[in-house]
Amino acid sequence: MYFVYDIGGTFVKFALMENNGTVKMKDKFPTTAKSAEELVVQMVEKWRPYRTEVKGIAVSCPGVIDTEKGVIYQGGSLLFMHEKNLAEMLARECHVPVVLQNDAKSAALAELWLGVAKNVHSAAILTLGSGVGGGIIMDGKLQSGYHLMAGEVSFMETSFDTKKLRGTFFGRTGSAVELIKRIASTKNLPNKKDGEHVFELINQGDEEANVIFDAYIYELASQILNIQYLIDPEIIAIGGGISAQPVVVERLNEAVAEIKAANPYHAAQPKIVTCRFQNDANLYGALYNFFLQMDAQNKR
């Protein structure tokens, strides 16, 4: 058995999983920690009841991750994790191998292992959440890049102010969370995070909701075309909670066709599909990453 964590800005998910991906137990706790040390204490507390069964620990977390050393840089929404060796901290307490991977890359690895990227030459995995997570698969392997930042599409700029020398990041314009908030605010919904209600409005043809949704979709479609030109993947897979809504990929394909029809110079032919895994993708990907890292170490 393996103990797997998915550290997020709101919750830390954890699961007891078998080596084939079967989930034997799954739960979560709020991300209340204010330091790396406090977070480790909370994580170890959840692991302890299963310690006699666990052969290794896999972690998905935000930030730029040195997977070989287990060090987190930046930390994403958890800035206190910057330059912390979380793998070493957990291994010291649990006495088993610990392997880390970036959250978006974990989502991509889930699709490579058991999802839509399993038997493809190449793929770009876009996870729509609070930002836009990215993972690039080429020749059946996850790409990390020289600076460990391959696939960090959230930092791509969608516009640029030449006077202020500042741009708008794709992580904001492509944020599913921001989309939900904008529509919920426009429609005066009591819960600004109520994605189900928002998509009910979209699917029912609400005009105000669909104006905002269409603008969001065109922004995504534009960046999908850019990604297609840059790395020419066999598929571009859309993940994250809202990917469970069929209208998302349906409208993306329509929007790409409309953009291409308006500009005959466009030659890209992106194949846009829905990820198999949604909210639990990081757990599966983190576990697969554990196996990959252990295998690589054994071959050295």
Automatic annotation (TrEMBL):
Q: Which InterPro entries match?
A: ATPase_NBD, ROK
Q: Which domain of life is it from?
A: Bacteria
Q: Which family does it belong to?
A: Belongs to the ROK (NagC/XylR) family.
PANTHER family given in the database record? ROK (REPRESSOR, ORF, KINASE) FAMILY, SUGAR KINASE
This chain's protein is named: ROK family protein
